[in-house]
Specification:
By secondary structure, the chain is α/β, with parallel strands linked by helices. About 30% of the residues lie in helices and about 25% in strands. The chain is built from four helices and six strands; from the N terminus they run βαββαβαβαβ. It has helices spanning about 20-30, 60-70, 95-105, 125-140; strands at about 10-15, 35-40, 50-55, 75-80, 110-120, 145-150. Strands 3-2-1-4-5-6 form a six-stranded parallel β-sheet, with helices on both faces. Strand 5 (about 110-120), helix 4 (about 125-140) and strand 6 (about 145-150) form a beta-alpha-beta unit. The chain is globular.
């Protein structure tokens, strides 16, 4: 795959990479040549990962331990954790509550040109947009970009809804 996004050789962290959209995003980043560090409560068996860490993102000590193992420079954070269907054992009760401490822990490891994205369910899109807008000025001063991305949902019949 041609690295049109410029991630070849960059160190990225993908929480929520054990299944679904997070796993697919990690696979794409591996194919682009990124050094991908998977973080998930369930681990990951995706080939080509630089590391796999089982971690509860709600536990700051676990997050700090994982980030210490990953290394001193992180150029991308693609947080897909907690996107499991509502009511499942892996669904996060409040995605934004988990993303805030993760951002705070990763920012000191980021260099100018780094980026972070929180992928959230559609019903949380406005909350992540507000949070990104709130954090953007200070992160921009560091040369770090923050974005929120709303994942689509499925109707009762299983068809993808447009968002």
């Amino acid at each position: 795959m041609t690295d049109v996004l410029g991630y070849s050789g960059r160190r990225v962290v993908v929480p929520g990479s054990a299944a679904g959209g997070g796993e697919e995003l990690a696979r794409i980043l591996v194919d682009l040549g990124a050094e991908v560090h998977a973080v998930d409560r369930a681990g990951s068996s995706l080939p080509g990962l630089a590391s796999v860490s089982q971690c509860d993102l709600g536990d700051p000590d676990q997050v700090d331990s994982v980030l210490a193992r990953i290394g001193a420079v992180v150029t991308g954070l693609f947080d897909c954790a907690g996107l499991a269907p509502a009511g499942s054992a892996h669904a996060a009760p409040d995605r934004l509550a988990g993303f805030r401490p993760l951002v705070d822990a990763v920012v000191p490891l980021m260099i100018p040109g780094s980026a972070m994205v929180a992928v959230v369910p559609v019903d949380e899109a406005s909350a992540i947009a507000r949070y990104a807008a709130e954090r953007a000025p200070a992160l921009g001063d560091l040369g770090v970009r923050i974005n929120g991305c709303a994942a689509g949902s499925r109707s009762a019949s299983g068809d993808r809804k447009s968002t």
